[in-house]
């Protein structure tokens, strides 16, 4: 009888509190809280406005999601591997550094989409050039493949288009399309020509006109090995100053006088020595008359006229008197 009363008491207590949790329930409290959180997230996902482009679905935890992740302007940007500050594509929410590096970046300084190489010493090779025989001869600089417009990127503002004359004869329209796709991108634009036929004069003449019109520099190679050396050299000398190819002028007076006066057509180094020994200074040479200059050995009427004409002509050229190209 007591057992029955006890059972009735428990039953009555349970019916008196219909919202109370059953202490003997097999579901742990952590699972119950997880179920409630999932239901809350599902209701929040259903309330997303139709214009929301993100549409993350019901697995989004709104309690820990930060709104600034949606703003690309606040996203972290890894440093460019080229060593120069260029605008890069901003990191997307959840995107890893490797995924960002795999994407191209918009380089405003050259007006072209530039592939971010893994290293600043790397030559970027277009994926379309994988079967090019010269690739196997690039041994002195590292290279990697990328989806780029030119055939090779050898610097931040330098690129190379490769063309063999044999292929150009079969597909003469090919190079025009490549140049059009390149647009105004890059500062140094090299057209690397592989001369692989005997009668190449006419083709090079035509390509020279195309290069001059579109701001390209022509470099000719007679083998794949030589073409690969050029590409390696372009990359190796990317950050070198031009001092090694500049004319070296000594700091003494005679060297400077020689450099100045030999700019006049028909005046050679022997003439400079003669002028310097007779008149002593550049000012005295400029003040000398035609009769005085005509008495010097090696100075005829024509040479004297050119020298005096160089001294008398104005430094500023009148644009109206320029020759029309």
CATH topology of the largest domain: Rossmann fold
- Rough outline: elongated
SSE arrangement, N to C = HHHEEEEEEHHEHEHHHHHH
Backbone CA Rg: 38 Å
Work out the count of structural domains: 3
Biggest sheet features: 6 strands, mixed
Structural class: alpha/beta
Give the strand line-up of the largest sheet. 4-3-5-6-7-8
Average pLDDT, all residues: 72
Number of helices, counting only DSSP H or I runs of 4 residues or more: 12
Give the amount of beta strand, in percent: 5-15%
Distance between the termini: 122 Å
Biased composition (Acidic residues): 49-58
GO cellular component, one term: nucleotide-excision repair factor 1 complex
InterPro entries: ERCC1-like_central_dom, ERCC1/RAD10/SWI10, Restrct_endonuc-II-like, RuvA_2-like
GO molecular function, one term: damaged DNA binding
Model description:
- It is a single chain.
- With 325 residues, the protein is α/β, with parallel strands linked by helices.
- It folds into three domains: 74-115, no CATH class; 123-242, Rossmann fold; 253-321, 5' to 3' exonuclease, C-terminal subdomain (DNA polymerase, domain 1), CATH 1.10.150.
- It contains twelve helices and eight strands.
- It has helices spanning 2-16, 29-46, 97-102, 165-170, 174-182, 201-214, 224-236, 253-261, 269-279, 282-287, 290-294, 301-312, and strands at residues 104-107, 112-115, 123-126, 143-146, 152-155, 158-164, 188-194, 217-221.
- The strands form two sheets. A six-stranded mixed sheet has the order 4-3-5-6-7-8, with helices on both faces.
- Helix 6 links the parallel strand 7 and strand 8 (217-221).
- It is elongated, with a radius of gyration of 38 Å.
- The model is unreliable at 1-27 and 48-113 (pLDDT under 50).
- Residues 1-58 are annotated as: Disordered.
- One of its GO terms (biological process) is nucleotide-excision repair.
- It is found in: Nucleus.
- Its main location: nucleus.
- GO terms for molecular function: damaged DNA binding; endonuclease activity; single-stranded DNA binding.
């Amino acid at each position: 009888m007591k057992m029955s009363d006890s059972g009735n008491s428990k039953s009555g207590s349970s019916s008196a509190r219909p919202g109370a949790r059953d202490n003997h329930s097999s579901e742990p409290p952590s699972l119950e809280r997880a179920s409630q959180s999932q239901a809350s997230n599902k209701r929040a996902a259903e309330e997303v406005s139709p214009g929301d482009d993100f549409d993350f679905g019901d697995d989004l935890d709104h309690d820990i999601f930060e709104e600034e992740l949606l703003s690309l302007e606040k996203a972290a940007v890894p440093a460019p591997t080229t060593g120069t500050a260029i605008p890069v594509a901003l990191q997307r929410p959840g995107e890893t550094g490797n995924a960002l590096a795999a994407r191209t970046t918009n380089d405003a300084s050259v007006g072209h989409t530039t592939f971010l190489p893994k290293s600043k010493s790397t030559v970027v090779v277009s994926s379309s050039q994988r079967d090019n025989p010269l690739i196997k001869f690039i041994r002195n600089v590292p290279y990697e493949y990328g989806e780029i417009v030119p055939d090779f990127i050898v610097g931040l503002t330098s690129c190379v288009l490769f063309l063999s004359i044999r292929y150009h004869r079969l597909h003469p329209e090919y190079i025009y399309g490549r140049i059009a796709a390149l647009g105004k991108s890059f500062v140094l634009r090299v057209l690397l020509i592989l001369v692989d036929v005997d009668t190449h004069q006419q083709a090079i003449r035509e390509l020279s006109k195309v290069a001059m019109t579109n701001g390209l520099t022509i470099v000719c190679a007679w083998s794949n090995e030589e073409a690969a050396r050029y590409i390696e050299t372009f990359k190796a000398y990317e950050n070198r100053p031009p001092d090694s190819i500049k004319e070296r002028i000594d700091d003494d007076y005679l060297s400077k006088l020689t450099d100045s006066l030999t700019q006049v057509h028909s005046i050679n180094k022997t003439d400079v020595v003669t002028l310097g020994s007779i008149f002593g200074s550049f000012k005295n040479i400029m003040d000398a008359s035609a009769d005085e200059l005509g008495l010097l050995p090696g100075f005829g009427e024509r040479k004297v006229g050119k020298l005096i004409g160089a001294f008398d002509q104005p430094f500023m050229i009148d644009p109206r008197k320029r020759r029309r190209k």
